[in-house]
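Hi F.,

I've been meaning to write this up properly since the lab meeting, where we talked about keeping a consistent format for the predictions we share between groups. The idea is simple: the sequence comes first, exactly as it goes in, then the C-alpha cells exactly as they come out, then a line or two of notes. No screenshots and no reformatting. I'm using this chain as the first example so we have something concrete to point to.
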Amino acid sequence: MNRHTKLAILIAPLLLVAGYIASDYYLEHQAAQDKVFYLNQQNNCDVLANKCVLESGEFLISVSDRQGTTQINATFPLDTVVLMLVNDDNSQQIYQLAMADTPYYWQAKTDLRESIPRAGDSRKLRLVAKIKGGSYISEFVSTTLSR
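Output, unedited:
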C-alpha cells in the first residue's frame, strides 16, 4: 500500500464526520426559515352557526362566534392567532386572539356578530395563525345562512 492510499484511509472518516455535521447545520438552517401555507375553506362558511372550517393538508382550523366572542379551534397547537374583519372600503379591524385553555383554543371579543346579524349578510375575514416559524394565512367570507 502506497502512502497516498494510507493517507486517503486516514482522511476519509474525518471527511465523513465533517460532511455529516455540515449537512446537519444546513438542515437546521432550512427548518428555521419562515414558511407560508394557505388555508382553504372546506365548504360555505357561516361563523355564527359554527360552520366554518379552514384546512391545509391535515391542519384544520374551526372559526366560530358565541355571544360576541370569536373562537378558534385548531388541530395543532398555535403560537399566535390574528383575526381581521375587513370592511367594505378594504380597511380592517385587527384582533389579536388570546389563548383560552390550551394552545389549541384561542378567543377574543369581536364585532363580527354585529356586522352580519341577518340571513344573507356576509363579511370578509382574514386569519393568520403562526406555528413554530410557519404562518398559515387565509382570506375567506362568512355568510350568515339563517338566524
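Notes:
The longest strand covers residues 122-131.
Helices lie at 3-32, 112-115.

If this format works for you, I'll send the rest the same way.

G.
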